[in-house]
Amino acid sequence: MKIEDFCKKLEGELAALGAGEERLSLAVQSLRKAFRVKPDEISILSLDDEKQVLVFVWPAKLAKSGFIPLSSSSSLAARTARDKKGFANNRFASVHHSSIFESVRLGPESDPPPLPIQKILSAPLLSSDKVSGVVQVCRKGTNTADAGEDFSQTQLTALTQIAQILARTL
Question: What SUPFAM superfamilies is this protein classified in (predicted)?
Answer without folding.
Answer: GAF domain-like (SSF55781)
